[in-house]
Amino acid sequence: RRSSDLFTLTDDVAVAATYAMVAYVLAGYLVPWAPARRDVPWWRRRCATNLAAGAVACAATLALVLVPNYRTAFGVNISYWDSVASYKQYGFLPSFVMGVREAQIRRPADYRESRAKRLEKSYAAKFDAQNNTDARKAAEQQFAQTKPTVIAVMNESFSDMSVFEDIKAAGYDGPQYLKYGLTDSLQQGALDVSVRGGGTCNSEFEFLTGASTGNMGGGVYPYVLYDLEGVDNLASYFRGLGYGTHAIHPAEAANWRRDRIYEQLGFDTFDDITTMEDADTFRDLVTDRATYERVLEKIDEGDGAQFVFDVTIQNHGGYDTGLVPPADAVHLESDEVESPEVDEFLAAIKRSDEDLRWLIEELNARDEPTIVVFFGDHQPNLPEDFYNTLLESQRGDLSDAELRQKKMVTPFFIWANYPLEHTAAATSTADPLNRMDMVMLAPTLLQQAGLPLSDYYKYLLEMKHNTPVVTAANDYMKVDGTTAEYGADPALDEWAKGYLSLEYNNIGAHAK
Description:
Blueprint: H1 3-6, H2 11-29, H3 42-66, H4 70-73, H5 83-90, H6 92-103, H7 113-130, H8 134-145, E1 149-155, H9 165-169, H10 176-181, E2 187-192, H11 200-209, H12 222-225, H13 234-240, E3 244-248, H14 258-265, E4 269-271, E5 281-282, E6 285-286, H15 288-301, E7 306-311, H16 340-364, E8 370-376, H17 384-392, H18 400-406, E9 409-416, H19 423-428, E10 435-437, H20 438-449, H21 455-464, E11 469-470, E12 475-477, E13 483-485, H22 490-506
Parallel strand pairs: 1-7, 1-8, 2-10, 3-4, 3-7
Antiparallel strand pairs: 2-9, 5-6, 8-9, 11-12, 12-13
Helix pairs in contact: 2-3, 5-6, 7-21, 7-22, 11-20, 15-16, 20-21
C-alpha cells in the first residue's frame, strides 16, 4: 500500500518532531567539543556550553509543560475512571503532564488565609443576627434534647425526565411517589448538579464537602487526585457531634478510591459489594431496597444517633441489558423519544420510586427520630444526540445556559418522621424556587433539622439567598430564576470570589 494510506502528518506530529529535533541538537552540545588545550582544564572547556544547552533544554521542557493546553490543543482527554487506558491511548508524557496540571487546585489570585477567615466570620455573624429567633432557638433546644439519626441517600441517576416536554408528551409524568405521594417533606425541589451520565464521585464530593468542582478545572475528580485527610465534610462533622458514621455502596470498594477516601473523610464503616453479595438485584445490580435494608441495620446496630450515607447503584447505565422483568416494563410510544434505552431507564426509576416509598413507610413506623435527605447524583447516560433533540424541541426563548441546565437537574427532598419545632418557620423561609445546587444541600439539611452550623455553612446559606445555584459549568442562577454567566453580574461575581477563597481555605489547604 502507498505510504500516504498508512501515515498522516498532523499538526501534533509536526510539533512533536520539531521538539525531538531540537532535543537531538541540544544533546549534541552536552559533550566536550573544544580543542584540547593543556593550559585549560577540561571542565572549563565545556562548562559554559553545557550550562547554555541545559538552560535552553529546561526552558523548552517548561514551555512544553506549561504553555499548551493538552486537552484543547492536542485532544488529550484523560479518563480518571480508567487512567491506564488513557495512558495507553495518548502516551505517558502528555497524559502525565496533563494529569499534573489539572490536579492542581487553583489558588485565588488575591487569596489570603486571614482574609478568607475574616470574610467567613463576618457573614456567619450576619447569619446569626438574622436567625436569632425563637424558632431557631427552639430548634437548637430540640436537637440538644434529641439527636435525630440522619440518612443521606444519593440515588444513582435518579431523575425526573418529565422535565423534557417530548418525554412528558409521550405520557411519562415522572416518579409518582416522589412527586405526589410524599406530601409531608420539609422541602422538595430541583437540584442543579455538575455532572451528567457519570462522575458520581464529584456529586458525592460536592455534597459531602460543600466545595464546587467548578473551581477545580475541567475533568478533575478530587476522589482520584487528592488525599482528603483533614478536609471538613459531613462525615467528620457528624463524628464531631458524637454520631456513628457509615457509608454504603454496593460496588467494588476501590471504585473512585472510595475505600481510601471514606476513611479519610471520617466514616467509621464502609459496606461495599463484598458485604452484600447475596442481596436482591434488578438488572443484575443491587436494588435500592437492599441498600435501604442495610441502612436500617446500621442504625439498629449503632449506639445513639447515626449518620448513614447510602450511594445506590440500581439505576446505573448502560440501559441496554434487556433484563427488565415484564411486570416492571415501561414503554413510551413516540417518534421523538421511543428508545429501548429510555424504556429501561424509566423502568429502573419506577422500581426506585417504589423502593423509596418502602423506606419512608418503614421509617414512619419507627419511634426513633430520623431525618432523610434524598437526591439524584446526575441524569442518565443516554446518547448526546438524544438530549440535543429533546432540548432543541423546547428551546423557545431559553438561552443556551438555561437549556444546558435542563439536563443538569435532579430531584431532592428533605423529610423527617417526627415534628420539628421550627417546621413552620423553616417552610416560610424556604427557597422560593425550591432549587439549589449540590453544595447548598448539606447546610440546608442541617438548618432544617436544627443542627449546629459551622461558619462555612452559614456563609453558604447567606450565599444561597443571592445565588442558589453555582455549578461546574459556571452558570449562576439568581433567586428570580434567571441565569447569568460568570462576569455578567458584579454582585454574583463578588459572591463567587468570596466562595472561591473559602473553598480554597478548606480544600486547597488540606488536599494533597
